[in-house]
Every structure is written in C-alpha cells, then in structure tokens.
Task: structure prediction
Amino acid sequence: MKPLHQRRSKRLRIEDIARMAGVGPTTVSRSFRQPEKVSQKTRKKIDAVVRETGYIPDLMAGSLASLQSRLIALLVPTIANPVHSDIIQGVTDYMRPAGYEVLLGSTGYSPKVEVDLIRAFVGRRADGMVLTGANHLPEVKQIVEMASIPVVETWELPGNPLDMAVGFSNRQAAMSMTQYLIDRGCKRLAIVGHDAPSDSRSSARVEGFLAVAVQAGIIEPVVWLVPGPTTSQRGSEAMSGLLNKHPETDSVFFVSDLMAVGGLLECQRRGLTVPNKIAIAGFGGSEITALTHPAITTVHIPRKEIGKRAAELLLLRFNNESILEPIIDVGYMIMKRESA
Amino acid sequence: MKPLHQRRSKRLRIEDIARMAGVGPTTVSRSFRQPEKVSQKTRKKIDAVVRETGYIPDLMAGSLASLQSRLIALLVPTIANPVHSDIIQGVTDYMRPAGYEVLLGSTGYSPKVEVDLIRAFVGRRADGMVLTGANHLPEVKQIVEMASIPVVETWELPGNPLDMAVGFSNRQAAMSMTQYLIDRGCKRLAIVGHDAPSDSRSSARVEGFLAVAVQAGIIEPVVWLVPGPTTSQRGSEAMSGLLNKHPETDSVFFVSDLMAVGGLLECQRRGLTVPNKIAIAGFGGSEITALTHPAITTVHIPRKEIGKRAAELLLLRFNNESILEPIIDVGYMIMKRESA
DNA sequence: TATCGCTATGGCAGCGCTACCATTTGGTGG
DNA sequence: CCACCAAATGGTAGCGCTGCCATAGCGATA
Result:
C-alpha cells in the first residue's frame, strides 16, 4: 500500500482508516454497511477514526465494486410545473430513506432529448428509472431492455408499457367531468384542447369528452384546439374565439387548469357570470384553481402519490419481491367548486 | 482478459469493444472523449461496433479513474414550490449541455437533513454543489472544505459565504417595496411576516420594512407574524387578525405571494376594495399574483437566472477560469400591478 | 539512407471499494 | 484439555475505466 502523499489522488481511503483503526479494510466496509456484523468494540474504534478524520466513503467506487449504484433516474418534461414537481417530490421523499439518490433530467418535451438523457443515466448505471408519459421513441425500449433496468412510466397509463406504470386514464377522467357537466344541466358543451401531436393526453381527454357528449345526445359539441403552450393567455384567447363563433355555449371544459384560469378571466372581462351564464371546468388540480373567484371545478390527480407509488414499485423490484400489480391506476377526483 | 461469460458482471466492457474493433482499449476510450485525436478510419470501425452492440460506457468506472464525476449536487428545501423549481430548471438546463448531470435532494427545510444529504453527495463525489439559503450548520463548512468542493449558495446572499453565491438582498428588496407603498400615499403600513427562527429571509424583509417606515415617519408600523407554512390560508387568517386589531391599516405587505393571495381574498370577503380601501403587496413574483383580481403588486425575483448564474460559476471554477465576482447580486424588480 | 517530428495507438497500473472466500477467535460441552 | 461451532475478522482479486508513458507509423528533409 502506497503512502498517501505519493498517490495520484490525495483522498483518504478505506485502507487508511483500516490501518489507523488497526483492523482490515473489509471490517471497515462492513461497519458501514452491516454494522450488526461487527463487534461493538471494533465499531467504536472505527467510528472514532472516522470522526477524527472526517472520512466519507467513496460511493462511486463502492458502486463499481458492488455493481449497483443506488441511483434512480427521474425524467420529466419540465420541472417548473407543479404537475411534475409533485411527482419529483414524491419520488425523492420515498427513495431517500431507502438509501437511493435521484438523478434528475428534464426533457423539455423532446423525445430525442429524452433518449439522450436515458442513455446518459444508463451510463451512470442507475438502478431504476422513472419516466413521464407513455410515448417514447423506439430506442428507449431497446436501451432499457439491453440494460435490463426497471422502468416506471408515470402520469398517463401506457397502452403498451415498457415495464411498470403508475397513472390514470385521461379518457375516463374527461368522461367523468363531462358527465358531471351534463348532470348539472349544461346543454351546449365545448372543450378546449391542445393542438400538439405529441400531447396524447389532451387527445385522450377530448375523445372522452366527445364519447360522453354524443352518448348523451348533446347537440353539436364543440372542440376548440389551441397550439403552443397551454398558458392562461392561450386560455383567454381560446375562450374569446370560441364565444365569438359559438355564443350559445353554456359550458367549457379546458384540458388544463391554467387555460381554464385564462378562460375564466375572459368571461369576467365580457361580463358573463360564471357559472350562471357559462360553466367552466379545468383539469389537473393545480392550486390556482382554488384561488380564483369563483374557484374552478377541476379534475384532481393525486400527483404526489404517483411519485410515491412509482418509488414503491422500484423498491419492490430491487428487493426481488413479487409485484402483483405492475400497472397502477391511481384514479382521479372531480373537485366540485364554484365555476361549474 | 477473461471471456465475458465467466466474469462476475455480464456487462460489455471497453476492452470487448476494443477487441471487436481490432484496436486497443485506450483508443476506444479516446474515440468517446476526444474523437478528434482518433483517425477517422479507426473511429468508424469503433462506431460500427458500438452501434451493433448497443454498448454504453460505464461513467461510474470512468469517474473513478478520472477522479471527477461530472455530477452536480443540488439541494432545495422543497421541490414543489415554484421558487425552487425555477432554480432547479435553471441549473439543469445550463449544466446538461456542458456534460454535467444533477443530483437532486430536498431538505424539507431541515438543516440536519441538509447535512446528511451533503454528506451523501460528497460521498458520490459530486464535482460541485448548489445550496439554497445562506444558513447552514457548521458541519457544512467542514465537509465542503475537507472535500474541497466548489459551492454556490443561492437565493439569499450570505453575510459570510462558504464559497460563491448568487442571490439578492431581501432587506433591500423589502425596503424598495415599502418605499413604493409610501410613495403611493399609504400612511398606516403593516407587514405580515413568517414566525420561524430558521426563516431569516422573512426577518430580513421585516427589518427592511421597518427601517424605511421609521425613516419616513410612519406612525406605528405594524408587524404581524404567522407561524407554520406560508400558505394562502395563513394569509387570510393574518389579514383577518390584523384588520380586527388595526382597522385603520391602509396597506399590507406580505412576505410571500401565497399569503398575499389569501389576504386579498379576506379583504374581498369583507367588502374592502383593493387597492382603494387597502393596498396589498406580495413578495416572490409567483405566477398567481398575475392571475388574481385585482392582480397583486409584488417583488419579482429572477429565479431562473439565479440557477443559471450558479451553474455558470461552477463551470468557470471547473475550468479553472478566474472568477471576478464570486458573489452575484441578481437584483429584484417591483412588479407594479393593480393591488397597490 | 538516416534523422527528425509529428500523429496515432497501445500496455498497464491504479482509481477506492466490495464479493468471495479463508482464517482466526472465543465460548461450549464432553 | 480438546474438539467443535458460530461469530468476527482479514487478504485479495476484480468492478470498468482513464492517466501516464512508451511505442509505432509515416512523411518530410537533408
């Protein structure tokens, strides 16, 4: 064993600690990871040296040797959106106590960036992966299968899952909300969706809306699609265009809460009272929906629970426990408020 | 070199690729990290083998050998808060193109958890660290100095920085807002702060408020502190208590936007018109402040830029470039809206 | 042809740890 | 006092890569 000062790295190593404590390196390693297998006396000696030196074991070297990284890769489209940040929070909160750390990547809604990130995280030998959404490039399947790494897809429930999944049915949720609007007496329904090919969530919601509307014999249900980001600004514009073309509309279901907020503002600008003159509904369960006047009726998704469940699934898999339900539907809830 | 099937790990290694391509392992490594140093012919051969096998190099082993991980540790109190998620977004967006990945940890506002996470991330040999806030347990200084790892503190500007910092002065920002309220003609000022010892941001804001109020000769400026989380619920309660005790108040400055929203709602419940009867101001620049009626005047902080600047500082340090300004004040902006 | 000066390539030790055994220790029962 | 066994401990190869240096190749120049 070379003396510290003539090594390429000046870092303290486990063998240094071992020597100082008068034990073997194996014993030091054990006293970190399986303390119960080391006699109390020995452990005390080691702890003393560790405290004194401030030694922190190198987990990368450990990962290399043990062939497991205790790292989870977590991919989201964007962090600055409560939808995803709640999932992130759920995953990290649940993984940390189990000794896993989270590698975070944001794809910016780009499937190509997603693949790049997945490759990078597989390169880091992440033990598991949590993806957002159910649509991925074909490479993804290849990579994760080749690396044989457990994967959980979240948010949407995939028709053809890569591995495991936690989410809810956008179609069903939209159907429930539509039925609710009809039950409340709305006759001229409209939905404002997102005109983006990669946003299959929006299309599933529009589909669900139409299915129920047609079933209930609604006359001419209106579908209004907006391109670009689903901001409140877009919501206002959509509401404006929609009302100009279909002034008889008595309820508008927005596929995103933020757009619903914008829509509400536009109604107020026009002096249309909500919900008397026109009912408004959102989707997502964001906090803002509770803060507007009137508060917006929306579909609430248990976002943090999605993260938690995803983490649970991964941990079960790591411990080789059997997973009875690899595809979990966490459901949704119609949050009845004042706007509809 | 042992054949693949009798190794402890079944993973493909660089030497396998090298053999298949008929070159040495060093050349394969180089063709990944410094392609310009490898002849085009050789590179093509290697690329072909890589594509064919789906080989992904092990970055952990690479990190161990090169003594650098290309990993950044990022600590926030909680992810599900736009204040922090924007910083996260800023850091990841800026770090990724430079080849760095982000390890994310959330402390839940606990200094002890923070230390644990820092220790874990130092164990993973993160090359740099971004912390939130300026108050840390003394262990933190020890650990980062021992590990000699670059650190950026964000959000608040620390009086006694660990290393580098990016943020703004809470005191000054609060002073500006207070002055603004006074200039608008408010005479009976109140501030709603956060009654938590570890929340030094709130106290700095209250201080700034008082300094300006006293200076301007305001009669009996009111300081109202609320315990617990700074939610809109708490804001409503604070407004209610405050108005009962000091009905003459003509402007309330909330140290958090969410509380300001709650305060606004309470005023509306009481039939007090904002801003005519009472002015309301918030702090933070959250999106919601633009969506209420009336929209709330607030102090806007360039959050994403904080993340970006922090990342910049780390990259400069990694490249051994000189840093002229290790403490960066990104400033703030009084967002004049309708509520004040 | 011999010499130089590049660029391109390769061999191998070592990064710091853990898995896998082998060995030692200490307590028990005969 | 010895055989026996479980608990505690230790030696060392190897995890997959890169840093360091040595060597090979190859054209240009004298």
